[in-house]
Design goal:
elongated; about 180 residues
């Protein structure tokens, strides 16, 4: 069972990271090409603006889902540091549970939105593709993010309360030192 979850974890991380990276790279590249065409050749790709928006949307939402794995989302731990470790651990589990519920609901309602759009047979204006295709990002990215939030709930719940608070501080110090190293 552990092997299954390890493989699932790697698969989700790979999908999130690759879609985020390639979505952003292709979006920037396509926008750049369209600008060059417009200003130097007085031509334009009419569909480039719409596709660029979709690429950035997919890249950003899958990047946010990947951020749950890396723990890079903003969190305020000032209050947690002042609480006894057991209460701090309970608060973290509660916060991750709220995140999980929200993300799972967004995935669920995103799925129903995709079904509704498909039922209406709505098409994109410039790309002439069914609109449910670019909107698939909602159930997929939020579903992956919910998976990560559930993973955090599990990690915090099996970790000793004293270690949870220590781990949070160590991750913060590590992230700060990485940022300072990147600046130099």
């Amino acid at each position: 069972m552990v092997k299954f979850f390890t493989i699932l974890d790697l698969g989700v991380a790979s999908v999130n990271k690759n879609i985020a990276v390639y979505g952003m790279i292709l979006g920037v590249l396509l926008a750049f090409i369209n600008v060059v065409l417009r200003y130097f050749f007085d031509a334009s790709l009419t569909w480039a603006g719409e596709l660029t928006n979709y690429l950035f949307m997919w890249g950003a939402l899958f990047g946010a889902a990947y951020g749950f794995k890396k723990g890079i989302h903003i969190s305020v731990t000032l209050l947690l540091a002042k609480l006894p470790p057991a209460i701090g651990k309970a608060m973290l589990i509660f916060a991750h549970s709220i995140s999980f519920i929200y993300l799972a609901a967004m995935s669920y309602f995103g799925y129903h939105l995709v079904l509704l759009i498909a039922e209406f047979d709505e098409m994109s204006v410039d790309l002439d593709i069914p609109m449910w295709i670019p909107n698939l990002v909602l159930p997929l990215a939020f579903g992956f993010a919910a998976f990560r939030a559930g993973e955090k709930i599990y990690e915090v719940s099996i970790t000793d309360a004293n270690e949870v608070m220590k781990k949070s501080e160590e991750e913060l110090i590590h992230d700060i030192s990485e940022m300072e190293g990147a600046k130099q």
